[in-house]
Amino acid sequence: MKITLSVIKADIGSIGGHIAPSTELLHTVGRFIHAHGEPLLLDNYVGFTGDDIAILMTHRRGEGDTAIHKLAWDAFVTGTAAAKQQGLYGAGQDLLRESFSGNVRGMGPAVAEMQFDERASEPFLFFAADKTDPGAFNLPLYLAFADPMNTPGLLLAPKMARGFRFVIMDVMHTDADHVIELNAPEELYDIAALLRDPERYVVESVWSRATGEQAVAVATSRLHNIAGKYTGKDDPVMLVRTQMNFPATGEVLAPWAIGHFVGGGMRGSHQVPIMPVPLGTGTSWFDGPPLVSCAGFSMHEGRLTEPVDAFAHPFWDSVRERVAGKAIEMRRQGFVGAAMLPMAELEYTGITEKLEALERRFAVRAPARAVA
Ligand code: F6R
Ligand code: MG
Ligand code: MG
After folding, report:
1. Higher-confidence residue: 221 or 40?
2. Which of 70, 233, 287, 326 is catalytic?
3. What is the pTM of this model?
4. What is the pLDDT at residue 101?
5. Alpha-carbon distance values, 331 to 5, 17, 320, 335, 337 (Å)
6. Among the listed residues 329, 347, 330, 348, the one whose alpha carbon sits nearest the alpha carbon of residue 339
């Protein structure tokens, strides 16, 4: 039976700055989906990571379905009214358009969707990241789906040995989607050459080459490309099907122990290591650090189990401590060099204006005369 997983998430307001949504806001969105989900949805889960609320939905209507997208949009609009009532900060921040027009793509919320034939048991992972952009998923996906140093299944499981196909998007274009398909392992170096620049090249999906099945869907939208100005980081979501012909759940989780540096953190403008956190964790230090949560689910005919909180396990406590240490070390060099993102990625325009003003004050010194 073909099932579609759709996750649509947005920042529509939070308490105490860009920290976390209120319980009232979360419940308003959840109640809306509960009240209006019939007969569209088979099941749903509503949760938050940092200041973002995500609505995970199962249904039979395929990807990009207008009714499903409108349901999520309307839930966020209703939530925004509740956020305003409570005086939450950034109420409705990610709803960039006045009215819904068929599909939430390009309207602010992040979307990841996958349609597939449900397996007898369908384990999958739902990742949500806050205070960062979709390129944050590049390294973990490369390691999980292309590197046998991380994923022994690439050596041990016959169907995985055929490798995986990466669909990678150049997110600098807003006219249309610019995508390339590359096969691991043959084109590993080409994949690596693109993924080394996570602000520009972003994994959009990953597919099994043995069976043609989709394993991964990532929300690739870049908010500042859509809005043309700073509106917060994209805070991407991702769905990953695991086990059997796909990497095992543990192989997909393992790369997150690195705590790699990603673009984000304070004012969306720094290089900060990403911290794996339990579900429903807010933001804190330096408007970060960038966070990633992971809810594991099983599913039968679209009915979800309760989520298992993958990063709540005690193993991740020492990872979090190490990531906090890395973050503090990088912050010690403040605004200088690698600590801050390159000019093109800075989310605020203040520095560009300052540099333009200073440029006018530069004097060109006459060349020194050569001594005879
Ligand atoms: C929000 C974010 C924050 C804000 C910062 C300033 O996603 O990353 O770091 O950029 O808190 O927010 P404003 O400009 O709203 O005062
Ligand atoms: Mg925010
Ligand atoms: Mg956010």
Report:
1. 40
2. 233
3. 0.95
4. 85
5. 38, 21, 16, 8, 11
6. 330
The predicted-structure confidence for 291-307, as pLDDT tens digits, reads as follows: 999 999 999 999 999 99
Q: Are 247 and 151 in contact (CB under 8 A)?
A: yes
How much is the mean pLDDT over the chain?
A: 94
Identify whether the C-beta of residue 256 lies closer than 8 Å to the C-beta of residue 140.
yes
Residues 6+ apart with CB under 8 A from 362: none
In degrees to the nearest 10, what's the CA dihedral of 320, 321, 327, 333?
Answer: 180
CA atoms of 142 and 115, how far apart (whole Å): 22
Nearest residue (by CA) to ligand 1, atom 2, is: 267
Among the atoms of ligand 1, which is closest to the Cα of residue 264?
8
Please check whether residue 165 is in contact with residue 207, taking contact to mean a CB–CB distance below 8 angstroms.
yes
* Three-state DSSP state, 260: coil
9, 11, 130, 201: the active-site residue: 11
From the list 46, 44, 6, 9, the residue with the least C-alpha distance to 27 is 46
Number of alpha helices (DSSP H) and beta strands (DSSP E) in the chain: 9, 17
By alpha-carbon position, which residue is closest to atom 3 of ligand 1? 267
Give the model confidence (pLDDT) of 59-92 as tens digits. 999 999 999 999 999 999 999 999 999 999 999 9
Residue with CA at minimum distance from ligand 1 atom 7: 232
Ligand 3 centroid from CA 98, angstroms:
20
- What band does 231 get if pLDDT is binned at 50, 70 and 90? low
**DSSP-assigned letter for residue 371:** P
Return all residues near 328 (Cβ < 8 A) that are at least 6 apart.
Answer: none
d(CA 37, CA 31): 10
Closest ligand (CA of 233) = 1
